[in-house]
Amino acid sequence: MEDFLIIQGFLTNNGSFNWYMWIGLPILIFLARVCDVTLGTLRIIFLSRGKQKIAPILGFFEVLIWIAIIGQLVQNIHSIPAYFGYAAGFAAGNYLGLWMERKLALGTFIVRTIVANDDNLVETEIHEAGFGVTRVEGLGSSGPVKIVYTIVRQNSIDQVLGIIHKHHSKAFVSIEEVRSSEFGIFPKSVFLQKNTLLGRKFK
Q1: Is residue 137 a contact partner of residue 122, using CB atoms and an 8 Å limit?
Q2: How many of the other CB atoms lie within 10 Å of CB of 71?
Q3: Contacts of 196 (CB under 8 A, 6+ apart)
Q4: Which of 129-133, 140-144, 188-192 has maximum average pLDDT?
Q5: How confident is the model at residue 31 (pLDDT cuts 50, 70, 90)?
Q6: I need a surface site. Which of 24, 96, 104, 174 has the fewest CB within 10 A?
Q7: Cα–Cα distance between 166 and 132 in angstroms, integer?
Q8: Nearest to 100 by CA among 151, 57, 43, 153
Q9: Distance between CA atoms of 142 and 112, rounded to whole angstroms?
Q10: What is the largest CA-CA distance in the chain?
Q11: What is the per-residue pLDDT across 73-126, written as a single tens digit (0 to 9) for each?
């Protein structure tokens, strides 16, 4: 029986419980998998948004960590908990990658607002907050409307939406990601800081 447990990895050769295979290795694989999947998630996000300088670096470390994980799994093929650690790390890595993307506030978005009211409160307050704003007159199904455009960073979306909803709680708002933009008017607190990911300053 003891020989069987040694073969299956439950016990070491001296008869003690194999802590590494059943506790240490799964935790190690979980943490490593969290790291490599997080890097992979961020790499895909960077590529989709045209940030090509940092994506190859993330890809290098992602694959390096993955190879190390696979090597440990092959060497400890009978460690069932290691497989659970691998799967759990994959799930947690996806969540962490998306969470980090939100915290980094990557991306630029265009906020399009359609309102029926003819006052200028929305665009005036958005402009006073430091954002560029453009108004276009239009005609909707119920009469004249105005369309207000502004381009903001992801971490400024809630601020702009708060301004819009303060004056027009039922305004039609759509938000789309902008792949690239040049010049424009943005809050100085956001765009005069050095962008360490791209190695340049916004203007």
Answers
A1: no
A2: 10
A3: none
A4: 129-133
A5: very high
A6: 174
A7: 19
A8: 43
A9: 19
A10: 85
A11: 888 777 788 889 999 999 999 999 888 877 776 778 899 999 886 678 888 898
Q: What per-residue confidence (pLDDT) applies to 183?
A: 65
Looking at residue 3, its pLDDT comes to 42
Instruction: Quote the CA–CA distance of 16 and 123 in Å, as a whole number.
Output: 72
Measured in whole angstroms, the distance separating CA 108 from the mean position of its chain's CA atoms is 13
Name the one residue in this structure whose structure tokens are 């453009």: 134
